[in-house]
Amino acid sequence: MARRRSRRLRKRTRQQVQGWGVAVAVAATVWVGLHWAAVWPVLAAVLGVVVLSGAGWGLLRAHRRAVGEDRRWRLQEEARARELSMAQVDALSWQEFEHYVAELCRRDGCTRIEVSGKSGDLGADVVGYLADGRKLVVQCKKYAPQRSVSSQDMQKFVGTARLEHGADVALFVTTCRTFTKAAQGLALRQNVVALHRDLLGAWVKGAHLETLIPLNGRGDGTRRRAPA
């Protein structure tokens, strides 16, 4: 019995709400009709704002999408250009690669550049001085792109770059794509600048050595002027 009364009450309340809704809608319609001359400019303005806002949002999304696509295209083109240049580097012998790296150093203002050009150089394939006088020691590894620089390679360079050659900036340059995790960690701990294939490609395409030095390892050894 109580449930039946409760259902009837809810039904009556719902009917009352619906009735009030219809009454308000009718009253609003009548009021708008009586004051249409004053209402329609407001409605037109509101509609115009909604339309313009929607169009602006659509244009903004289209612009962002176009910018994103353009950025992706540029990155793809830059990567393709690096690979085209790196294909020429891949064709060099290891001796020619060392001389090529030396020329990149000279291009970027390094002085007194010397190339070892022989085995048993204790990791100093290229030696010279940066424009600010810091001594630069470079290890060049001409590896296939799919290879990785091992921690053993990095350990040998770390053990000689500063102790044997007095490097302020120790630079490890390779034509392969990656350093192993252990090699990369060692480079970061020992402040060795590790340039893998992609960074080398950027250097080949014109990036300045000074902008690459901070990327892998700090590479910010004590500033030292070249001896007279």
Write the layout of secondary structure elements.
Blueprint: H1 2-34, H2 36-90, H3 94-107, E1 111-115, E2 126-129, E3 135-141, E4 148-149, H4 151-161, E5 169-174, E6 178-179, H5 181-189, E7 192-195, H6 197-204, H7 209-212
Parallel strand pairs: 3-5, 4-6, 5-7
Antiparallel strand pairs: 1-2, 2-3
Helix pairs in contact: 2-6, 4-5
Give the overall shape, derived from the CA principal axes. elongated
Q: Oligomer, anyone?
A: single chain
The order of strands across the largest sheet is 1-2-3-5-7
Radius of gyration: 35 Å
Order of secondary-structure elements: HHHEEEEHEEHEHH
Strand content: 5-15%
Q: How many extended strands? A: 7
Helical residues, percent = 55-70%
Number of helices: 7
Alpha-carbon distance between the termini? 110 Å
Mean pLDDT, nearest integer?
Answer: 81
Find the structural class using helix and strand composition: alpha/beta
Largest sheet, described in full?
Answer: 5 strands, mixed
Low-confidence stretches: 222-228
